[in-house]
């Protein structure tokens, strides 16, 4: 007797909650299936490696320091759709190190940042860090240093 009373008490509320749970579950399952398809599509469709990409510096305009960066070139591995990779060139990939606010540095280790066009994902940067040294300049910077 208690089981029948348990089931029939607030029956419409229980049916509504069950329907809402099924709707939520099916929506999340559909969204997760779609997201997994997109992510696996990137890794499945292709990768490209660009070597000897020059590391540029991001510094403030009024900075009068020259920066020596070692290594000055890196290798970047990217992935994306085949059509996007076919159009991609080394000039489309911006490799930089943020030195804004750095006044003096001796053997400072900084992480490399990479900016790519939409649809392209950075998979690996080799090496992932650079060593930075600063030099105060009064005039034009030396040719083997970046300013």
Question: Could you give a short description of this structure?
Answer:
The protein has 147 residues and is α+β, with helices and mostly antiparallel strands.
Could you characterize the architecture of this molecule?
- This protein has 147 residues and is an alpha+beta fold.
- It has two domains: 2-41; 46-136, Beta Complex (RNA Polymerase Alpha Subunit, Chain A, domain 2).
- 33% of the residues lie in helices and 35% in strands.
- It contains three helices and nine strands, in the order ααββββαβββββ.
- It has helices spanning 2-8, 11-45, 82-87, and strands at residues 47-54, 56-58, 65-70, 73-80, 94-98, 108-111, 113-115, 120-126, 129-136.
- It has a three-stranded antiparallel sheet with strand order 1-4-8. Strands 2-5-7 form a three-stranded mixed sheet, with no helix packed on it. A three-stranded antiparallel sheet has the order 3-9-6, with no helix packed on it.
The first-level CATH class name of the largest domain: Mainly Beta
Give the strand tally.
9
* Gross CATH architecture of the largest domain: Beta Complex
Lateral arrangement of strands in the main beta sheet: 1-4-8
SS class? alpha+beta
Shape: elongated
SS strand fraction: 35-45%
- Which stretches of 5+ consecutive residues score pLDDT under 50? 140-145
At the fold tier of CATH, the topology name of the largest domain is RNA Polymerase Alpha Subunit, Chain A, domain 2
How far apart lie the N and C ends?
85 Å
Major β-sheet profile = 3 strands, antiparallel
Number of helices, counting only DSSP H or I runs of 4 residues or more: 3
Q: What value does the Rg take, in angstroms? A: 27 Å
